[in-house]
Amino acid sequence: MTVTLRYAARSDVGLVRSNNQDSAYAGPNLLVVADGMGGHAGGDVASALTIAALVGLDRPDHSSEQSMSALERTIDQARQDLVDATAADPDLAGMGTTVTALLKSGNTLAMAHLGDSRAYLLRDGVLAQVTVDHTFVQHLVDTGRITPDEAETHPQRNVVMRVLGDFDLDLTPDLSIREAIPGDRWMLCSDGLSGFVPEDQIAEVLVSVADPEDAVERLVSLSMRAGSTDNITVVVADVLDEGAAAGTAATVVPEIVGSAALAGVTAAGDDAQTPTHLPVPSPGVDGDTVTGFVRGPAADDQGGTAPAAVSVLAGTVTQDGLADTLEQAVIASGSEDEQYQPDVRPDDEDEENDEDARPARGKRAWLTVLGALLLVVGLGLAGWAGYRWTQTQYYVGESDGQVAVFRGIPATAGPLTFSTAVELTGTRVDELPPFVADRVHETIRATSLEDARGRADRLIADAAEEAGATPSPTPSATPSSTPTSTPSSTPTPTQSKKASDDSAGEKNG
Question: Do residues 492 and 23 make contact, with C-beta atoms less than 8 angstroms apart?
């Protein structure tokens, strides 16, 4: 029997953190959550490099016997990438990340786990935690020194004993293999969710919300409502047999979220390989750019040096990335014209030579003008195609102080804007609970106009339920217009994840 996955992923910076150091990937054959640590020294770099190393495994050609060893080998490659990145930039020293990954092969799932990100399995309506946290507090529970209830409030509950780090030490992840049974629902998450939302509430959402996309949105919302002080990352995947998958709109485009998406990590197509040594930029403090190295399975086949091709699947480009591309096109059209260089010759050069040279200079001038025109036309066509694509997108945001449904993307390029409010709900944003208002300000993606309406309705209903009021989310107006890091201490395999961003070995995602 062949099974398939229907999946969704969501990552949010949360209510307190200034940057998102979580990363996650969800694809047809691979699910991963990585929770970076190391303060501004590079927790986001660590999680992004780890996801970049693992995405090459998202292929259907693994056998059940190979999948577990492939996971172990690739995670060790990711560890070496962290070591190499620290050697290139000592300011990154001390960075690390958790890793929880599931790799599908046929009707089995291979699992690898390091740290305190978790994997849960919902089967026959019962939710069970599959992974065991690699924390000091969990060790106390396992040895009978404290109870699980005491562990929930223990002052050292964030001290992680095993992580993937930049220290040159081999820490083997927990490895296991499980049967993928149709009807199962898997959830992977960082402790921004599991550390703040009780398990019974998580189970209620996973049981009652059928669509994975809606489930991850609801879980992130619950975590923020619970006052999560950490980054929040959730991946939900349903196991379907071929018959059930054929009757659903199963997700087919991989999703990359969190700091890995910001770093430009992309999914490789079936005929492509992951890059062997490719610089991956990741936003640092005050917009600085830090560069690490990505190494994928192709490195073994090519001696670890030759770069391999990367194919980007449609739909994986972020909205911010598209806006940057369009803005660069506008800038390029006005700044890249070839400068005219005067033809300076000796005064005593005879007039005959001057006349012979004029046709050549005139030809070069026309070629320059033609090239400039072609460049402007090409950039214009690319910009128009990009703009047309933006008008097929929808999101929920704020317009005239109200919760509104927008067509386009929340981005601008110079004087241009790429979104227009198409429906106002009548609900004022300043009347919503603070965490709900923050989500509206940050915007909420949607896959269609109907999806955006539904998300606005649910958001307003949840807010009204929170405030004890009756929601009135029906859209009322339809304006339509045409849119004209402080270095960490000496790296050790045990890292303490504290709330302070300035502590070495701190977990920030």
Answer: no
Q: Amino acid letter at 467?
A: A
Which residues does 367 contact at the CB level (< 8 Å), separation at least 6?
none
185-189 and 118-123: which strand pairing?
Answer: antiparallel
CA distance linking residue 463 with residue 459, whole number of Å: 6
Give the architecture (CATH level 2) of 3-318.
Answer: 4-Layer Sandwich (3.60)
Phi, psi at 204, each rounded to 5°? -60, -40
Question: How many CA atoms, within 13 angstroms, populate the side-chain half-sphere of residue 313?
Answer: 21
pTM, entire model? 0.57
Of the pLDDT bands very low, low, confident and very high (cuts 50, 70, 90), residue 304 is very low
Residue 360 is predicted with a pLDDT of 57
Q: Using an 8 Å Cβ cutoff, are 117 and 189 in contact?
A: yes
SS3 280: strand
Residue type at 191 in one-letter notation = D
SS3 letters across 88-134: HCHHHCCCEECEEEEEEECCEEEEEEECCCEEEEEECCEEEECCCCC
- The amino acid at 478: T
pLDDT higher than 80, residue 94:
yes
d(CA 197, CA 403): 26
Residue with tokens 């690490």: 292
Q: Where are the domains of the chain?
A: 3-318, 394-467
pLDDT of residue 168: 61
For the CA atoms of 453, 459, 461, 462, what is the dihedral angle to 10 degrees?
Answer: 160
Nearest to 37 by CA among 194, 216, 167, 171: 167
